[in-house]
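2024-03-11 09:14:02 INFO worker-7 job=invfold-0412 stage=load source=structure_tokens
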């Protein structure tokens, strides 16, 4: 009889622990973190199509900085789909692009961009230079000539309220286009 009570109590404690764990994990992923899948090649070579990113919600990621990789969502962006881009400039800064030389300038200084796939030659319709309002960011894909980003009038300078969060790590790599395999060594912090 004592053994049955002990087994029942242990079962109850295990179920209670499991339920508490599920609640905590759900709350963390609801309010603090989320997993987002990269769709498309606009961030190649930094990110691949199908990469699964760990994203810190906007309210917890602090001030956005040049170079941060962010997730954006707005109805006018690609039919409301989430998009992944890199922050090039933040509120109050100005952006200019020399499309002949492929150079991006922020506040008159040429950016050093070792992460880009190729220089920026493709114009998308926005007139430059552009000065950002205090609550805006200018974003671009790393695969510059194959990216719809702030150069395009439908996206333009992005109000920070449309930023869902900041990508901090690749938790599962997508398959690379060239090899059609996953590069497991890419797992880790961005």
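2024-03-11 09:14:09 INFO worker-7 stage=emit residues=190
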């Amino acid at each position: 009889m004592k053994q049955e009570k002990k087994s029942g109590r242990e079962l109850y404690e295990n179920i209670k622990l499991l339920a508490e764990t599920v609640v905590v994990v759900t709350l963390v992923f609801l309010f603090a973190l989320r997993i987002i899948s990269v769709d498309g090649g606009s961030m190649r070579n930094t990110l691949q199509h199908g990469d699964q990113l760990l994203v810190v919600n906007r309210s917890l990621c602090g001030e956005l900085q040049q170079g941060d990789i962010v997730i954006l969502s707005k109805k006018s962006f690609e039919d409301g789909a989430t998009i992944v881009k890199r922050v090039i400039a933040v509120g109050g800064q100005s952006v200019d692009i020399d499309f002949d030389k492929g150079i991006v300038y922020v506040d008159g200084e040429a950016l050093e961009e070792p992460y880009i796939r190729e220089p920026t030659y493709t114009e998308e319709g926005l007139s430059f230079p552009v000065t950002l309002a205090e609550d805006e960011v200018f974003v671009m894909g790393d695969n510059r000539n194959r990216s719809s980003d702030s150069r395009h009038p439908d996206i333009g300078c992005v109000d920070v309220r449309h930023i869902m969060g900041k990508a901090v790590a690749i938790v599962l790599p997508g398959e690379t286009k060239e090899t059609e395999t996953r590069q497991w060594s890419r797992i880790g912090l961005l």
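2024-03-11 09:14:09 INFO worker-7 stage=report msg="The chain has a mean pLDDT of 89."
2024-03-11 09:14:10 INFO worker-7 job finished
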